[in-house]
Sequence to fold (477 residues):
Amino acid sequence: MNIIRLAAACLLLTILFACTVGPDYLRPKAETPPSYKEMEGWKKAEPQDQIPRGSWWTIFNDTQLNTLEEQVNISNQNLAAAEAQYREALALVQVARAAYFPTVAAGPSVARQMPSANAPGSRGVTLPVSVTTSDLIFSGQVTWEIDIWGKVRRQVESSKAGAQASAADLEGVRLSAQAQLAQDYFQLRALDSQKQVLETTAANYRKFLDLTKNRYATGVAAQSDIQTAQVQLNATEVLLTDVGVQRAQLEHAIAMLMGKAPSDLTIPETPLDLAPPEIPAGIPSELLERRPDIAAAERQAASANALIGVAIAAYYPNLTLNASGGFEASNVAQWFAWPSRMWTLGPAALQQTIFEGGLRHAQVEEARAAYDASVATYRGTVLTGFQQVEDNLAALRILENEARQQDVVVDSAHKNVEITINHYKVGTASALDVITTQAIALNNDLIAAGILGRRMTSAVLLIQAVGGGWQVDNCTK
Fold:
């Protein structure tokens, strides 16, 4: 009974004096500007407008894009790997929590033995017959290391924060895959626009080639004019073929993002005729709540902070309680009889490491350094987020102005082609003049299509930069 009282006293002391060592976590401060520098001049969305949570790509009102994006969640292999890593992180939380509870083991053991009649200790007395005995034991053991100093609690805290970081990483991979698909899709459609321009231009070049041949037949054009017009047509057809190569590669990239073999996906040719939607960028302080990579970095800092407590707990003694009990007999008939019972309570061991060559100090310093590194990573991720928002706000604003300027250039270039051809027909302009103006018009048409593609890509990147409609509470529940 004295042992029972001792164990009860140990448990009572544990309840009264248990504490959690190590620093409590405070979210690291990250400097946030009051507003975005590049927001000036950017058309803001109405206050009630928000990026759709989850299906953010629907803001573009493109049915084909919606169909492609919905399949990313189903079959993307990078996403599947991130989801498996998240489940692994959740399992680690359960592994850490298991240390709260005692370890219980049970099982039977059977032994049969015959001691030697001449064994040491017999003092010369020879037994007439060696006695063979059986020892049948069914026992259970309980071992429990009491979490006096909060080592287990800190480990659970760290694992939980790690799982939350993994949840944010999963959403970051999802957002990245979705954004990459949208970028590839709009680049593909921009190529479709360029292809349309090249096809229209090639048709016009054929007409000019026919016109030149007719003028040569009447003696008012030189053979070199025909050759020059033919070279221009052939060069345009080469560009048209090259667009096909780029388009095929983008289509294959989209298939991979969807988790499909490239041969299983064909996207119809559709020239790009959209304009970037109005995207609510919000205010800088909201960015900390809307980007999964920032949330993941902050949760990693929380996890590293908890590990400092785990390392500090090693300075303090461990209290381990042990108990065992069961049945022991020499034959099966008496094995589980009440008189065959046995039990042991103890030992209750309080163990303190006296010397370990500076190991604990080094482990604490390692944990503190890892925390400092995670804080720096968090703050760097925040700054990167601000940069990406500013970059794409600037890109959208400047490209919108550039598009308006380019439209003026395109109109002027086409009017110049028309005027030059009319002059060529009446003999006041040369074939070289026509070809030059046509080349200028084609170049500007391709530039205009490229600018629109860059605007759409920048719109996708801005949505990705502000978190794609994601919220931090998605990973901290």
In short: Confidence is low (pLDDT under 50) at residues 44-49. Strands lie at 103-113, 133-146, 318-329, 341-345, 349-351. Residues 13 and 148 are 9 Å apart (CA to CA).
